[in-house]
């Protein structure tokens, strides 16, 4: 049958019951708009949390873990070989936090084509002296330029400049929570005591906020040279080597290879943040599930409206088939009606979803823990709009499939005879 004629009949049926058509289209519009808004907001939140944690986490971390020796003396004694030896209360033996031959290791890692960059690090426990009170905390000695390039360190320095910790001798960047406890302003001098009992004066050049308040109450940063000076260690003393890869998914493989090659402990980002990644995946799954449920509900609305339309248009369907329209022609007419509702409702839904996302993206979001975040996070990934539009058409197609099939099987003789 002529396609133009089929389109014309479908248009007439749609306009004849325009109120019901509008209700069905509004259902699709609302579902798509909420799907886009919810998915954009939840993924924006995931991106924000990922930025707070994953951006500051190396893909592979090389270090020496303090742990008991696996080869205890009893296992090497000839009288106990081949026996099961049960040893309790095993303590760590003579071990070193320092990475042996850190310089050659860093050079070898930098030459690996899989590696984007390497940032050495030195962690130590200290006491911040506030009058007669000693406050425990940590200082991380960092290569500031590499931290800025690889881990966006400057984004977390909310006051002062990150590079000043390198340019200003004997300087420190305090966590904002720690600075509040010490009542330390920019330019002030704070006293720290090392594990060896040595006391040093460090000048405050900035504040750091990670977004996790408990960390900001104990964490501070200094240059590697300053930290080595605090501990009385040589320039080769490094406790961590942070590796950033081109491909995050290769981290477990690279970590295992480095652990064997350099005889150090190696931790990949997937292991270090397994629980955090699980939370992000669950939030995304919930967003998709809620959005799809909304689309299915809209599909049932279209299904009911088309069923009612077929029941009321039995005479028209009988006349169409009596005048030469085949069952497949009638099937196409009602499928076209369903897909038209899905298409126009979906397009308008995508537009409203984008508008709602823009509105949320401009709502002020002020919190002391995240001073760099000014509005609610929203992700405008085009993939969400493609998924929303695709599911809109799929849902409305299946919503119209069974009513259209029912209409195609109408016997015109029975309908006309009944009239």
Characterise the protein shown here.
By secondary structure, the protein is of the alpha+beta class. It is 54% helix and 16% strand. The protein has 16 helices and 10 strands. The chain has helices spanning 3-16, 18-53, 73-76, 102-110, 144-151, 164-167, 176-182, 213-216, 224-231, 251-262, 269-272, 274-312, 314-322, 327-361, 382-408, 412-418, and strands spanning 60-63, 115-130, 133-142, 157-160, 171-175, 189-193, 199-208, 219-223, 240-245, 265-268. The protein has a 6-stranded mixed β-barrel with strand order 2-3-8-5-7-6, surrounded by 4 helices. The two termini are 27 Å apart.
Largest sheet: 6 strands, mixed, barrel
The tally of helices reads 16
Topology as a string of helices (H) and strands (E): HHEHHEEHEHEHEEHEHEHEHHHHHH
Our estimate of the beta-strand percent is 15-25%
- Specify the overall morphology: elongated
**What is the average of the pLDDT values?**
82
Determine the fraction of residues in helical runs and give it as a percent range: 40-55%
Residue stretches low in confidence (pLDDT < 50, at least 5 long) are none
Number of discrete domains: 2
Q: Would you report the number of β strands?
A: 10
| Head-to-tail CA distance between termini | 27 Å
Radius of gyration from the CA trace? 33 Å
Oligomer: single chain
Widest sheet: strand order? 2-3-8-5-7-6
Helix-strand makeup class: alpha+beta
